[in-house]
């Protein structure tokens, strides 16, 4: 069995969270915070910063890990750490080779109300509910989001 360690950046600006849309027609279509596998020797926070830049063109500063998520597929066990990040600069763009290779078709910031209107899956799943309370509470501790079957691979 293969094991994968990854990280993602959760970027919040004016009570709106950054998500990217991964879409291959007839295969999958979902929104997720930017993230991906760590490179050799890379820390979780470095990976989150790199992934946000590659997938959205934005430069961010890592603040702290806020969620730990575990998921699996038939031949892989996956651990992902979501890192709260502060926006520093840049304009959203999904034209980088890393973004197009991952079939990222768009990126945007969403309010809680806007997320509730999206009819396709959103990851991590807490974005639709407890994330907003955690944000208000200042993410006092790292939260384990559980172990679930990976829906798209």
Question: Which terms summarize this structure?
Answer:
153 residues; alpha/beta; nine-stranded mixed β-sheet; 4 helices
Give a brief outline of the structure:
The chain has 153 residues and is an alpha/beta fold. The protein has helices at 44-56, 97-101, 112-116, 130-137, and strands at residues 2-13, 16-24, 28-32, 35-37, 59-73, 76-89, 104-110, 122-123, 143-149.
Describe the structure.
The chain is an alpha/beta fold. The chain has one domain (2-149): Nucleoside Triphosphate Pyrophosphohydrolase (Alpha-Beta Complex). Helix content is 20%, strand content 48%. It contains four helices and nine strands. Strands 1, 2, 3, 4, 5, 6, 7, 8 and 9 form a nine-stranded mixed sheet that branches. The protein is globular and about 40 Å long. The two termini are 15 Å apart.
Distance between the termini: 15 Å
The CATH class label is Alpha Beta
Reading the helices and strands in chain order gives EEEEHEEHEHEHE
Structural class by helix and strand composition:
alpha/beta
What is the CATH third-level topology name? Nucleoside Triphosphate Pyrophosphohydrolase
Average pLDDT number = 95
Described by the principal axes of the CA atoms, the overall outline is globular
Please give the domain count. 1
Biggest β-sheet description = 9 strands, mixed
Number of strands: 9
How much of the sequence is in beta strands? Answer: over 45%
Helix content: 10-25%
Please name the CATH architecture: Alpha-Beta Complex
What's the name of the CATH homologous superfamily?
Nucleoside Triphosphate Pyrophosphohydrolase
